[in-house]
Each structure stands twice: as structure tokens, then as C-alpha cells.
Specification:
266 residues; alpha/beta; TIM Barrel; 8-stranded parallel barrel; two-stranded antiparallel ribbon; 12 helices; amino-acid biosynthesis; Indole-3-glycerol_P_synth; Indole-3-glycerol phosphate synthase; aromatic amino acid biosynthesis; lyase
Length: 266
């Protein structure tokens, strides 16, 4: 596992162990019947894509390890409503605390303010986190192939599907894509950020897109800053797009979201 990612995942396992000690798995499972039913994350994306519209997963995150604080006036419900008004199909909410300033409460608050399906974006390394996500009302979660062995990914995907959660499987290169395609999930996310240098290059999606089967939905992640970028990725074969920082830094998030989607002049 690559440097910083290995460090993050090790810290995440320690965090999960602490959570399990303070809130045992049985307590989480007992809360599942009271969780709101899943809204259909993959279904919402596919509906937009099949209608010929770009399907946007708009991301809510306070900060990142590489870019620091992203938005000072951080209020997940307000951001969620702005994204919905701008035309987002789904939301992604960062719930990692040490590195991204997130928490599971941000997902609960964002989801409770809109009708959009919500992805829990975190470093998922343990089935406990899958149950935690569903108990909090998440509709989908992220699995990062660079952080997981194939067997681990299969176990986590099965746990997610067993609870009605969709899964977005993230890859960075050909080898990870080959492993991701062994999973059942139709959602394949190509992250354009290189794990070694942290440099973002949209050519990553252009290189990998032809290798993604037609029955999967390709999600382009990282590096989209304009409608032109979105059109370039759509030409490469992406039908879904995960965008966060480029929108989170804008004064008018709703207008910026609409402009990104080409619904108003940029």
C-alpha cells in the first residue's frame, strides 16, 4: 500500500477498534431497522446518464490533507441544498475526521436536508464501517482498491449489498481496474489523482475508460474544474462525475454547480 494511504488506513483501523469498543457491533445492528430506506444511489446516476445528462456526485468536505481547509463556512445541510438546487444527482460526504475534518454526523445532516442519495466517502477497511454507514442512513459507500486486497474488497462489497448499499469502486490504474471488475458493483470510479505525486491528470480517465465494460457506469473523480473539463471526460466515456473542491470553494455553490453541468452560462 502506497505511503500516505498506508498511514491513513492504519490510523483508520485503530479508529474503528476504538469505535467498536465504545459502540459494539450489536448496538449498531440493533439500530438498522430504524435507518431510513436506501434511496438508490446507482439508480439515480443511471437515470441521469440514460437521459443524456451528466450525472454529478457533488462532494461535501471540510478540508483535505494536500489542500488544507477548503471552506470556512462549512454547513453540510446548506451545502447539500445548494448542490441539489444546482442539479446534482447524488451527494458524497467525507466522514473521515483526522485527515478531512469529517464525521458521520455530517452525512446524517446533509442527507436529512435533501432527497438525494448520499455516498459515505471514507477509508472503508472493516465491515463495522459498513454497518455504521447504513445505520447512519448512507445509501452507498466507497471502496478504494489501492487500500484493499481483492478478498477484502469482495467481503466489504458483499456486506454493503447485504444491507442495501450501493458501492462505488475506486481505481487509479490498470491493475486496480482489473481487480475492481471482479466485483459486482456497476460503479467504477477512476481517480485522476496519482497516489505517489498527488498530481491530478485527466488523461488517467482517458486512458482507462476504454477498459471499462459497457455494462458498468464510469465515474470520473478529481480534476474537474469547469464544464469544459466535464465535456472532455464525457467524450472519453465518463457519464458520471464526482466533484468536490472546485465547487466547495465557490461563493455561490448552487450557481457553480449549475454552471459545471452546463445549465447556465459559466
Amino acid at each position: 500500500m502506497i505511503g500516505a494511504l498506508g498511514e491513513i488506513c492504519a490510523a483508520k483501523r485503530e479508529h474503528v477498534a476504538a469505535c467498536r469498543a465504545s459502540r459494539p457491533l450489536g448496538v449498531l445492528e440493533a439500530a438498522l431497522p430504524g435507518a431510513p430506506p436506501p434511496r438508490g444511489f446507482a439508480r439515480a446516476l443511471r437515470a441521469e446518464a440514460e437521459a443524456g445528462r451528466p450525472a454529478l456526485i457533488a462532494e461535501i468536505k471540510r478540508r483535505s490533507p494536500s489542500r488544507g481547509l477548503i471552506r470556512a463556512d462549512f454547513h453540510p445541510p446548506t451545502l447539500a441544498r445548494a448542490y441539489a438546487a444546482g442539479g446534482a444527482a447524488c451527494l458524497s460526504v467525507l466522514t473521515d475526521c483526522p485527515y478531512f475534518g469529517g464525521e458521520i454526523g455530517h452525512l446524517v445532516a446533509a442527507r436529512g436536508s435533501v432527497g438525494l442519495p448520499v455516498l459515505r466517502k471514507d477509508f472503508i477497511v472493516d465491515p463495522y464501517q459498513v454497518v455504521e454507514a447504513r445505520a447512519a442512513g448512507a445509501d452507498a459507500l466507497l471502496l478504494i482498491m489501492a487500500a484493499l486486497g481483492t478478498g477484502q474488497a469482495e467481503e466489504l462489497e458483499a456486506a454493503a449489498h447485504g444491507l442495501g448499499l450501493d458501492v462505488l469502486v475506486e481505481v487509479h490504474g490498470e491493475a486496480e481496474l482489473e481487480r475492481a471488475l471482479r466485483l459486482r458493483s456497476p460503479l467504477i470510479g477512476v481517480n485522476n489523482r496519482d497516489l505517489w505525486s498527488l498530481r491530478v491528470d485527466l488523461a488517467t480517465t482517458e486512458r482507462l475508460a476504454p477498459l471499462v465494460p459497457a455494462d458498468r457506469l464510469l465515474v470520473c473523480e478529481s480534476g474537474i474544474g469547469s464544464h469544459g473539463d466535464l465535456e472532455r471526460m464525457a467524450a472519453a466515456g465518463a457519464r458520471c462525475f464526482l466533484v468536490g473542491e472546485g465547487l466547495m470553494r465557490q461563493a455561490d455553490v448552487a450557481a457553480a454547480t449549475a454552471a459545471l453541468l452546463g445549465r447556465v452560462p459559466a
